[in-house]
Amino acid sequence: xxxxxxxxxxxxxxxxxxxxxxxxxxxxxxxxxxxxxxxxxxxxxxxxxxxxxxxxxxxxxxxxxxxxxxxxxxxxx
Length: 77
Fold this sequence. Notes:
This protein has 77 residues and is α/β, with parallel strands linked by helices. 31% of the residues lie in helices and 27% in strands.
């Protein structure tokens, strides 16, 4: 696995995977999810909501919701 920066936090028993959406990070979500079994995933980008990066993040969120139906929450920020 290539070195990818991500953040994992565990507050009140809820494990969260925070994924910055740049480079290879989106491709690593499946592997990271299988390693840490988060309760939720937060997808982060630095674009405005009207930018194509936000639209792509929403599409990725939809894909992940269908793939990981047991997750409590998937957010785009």
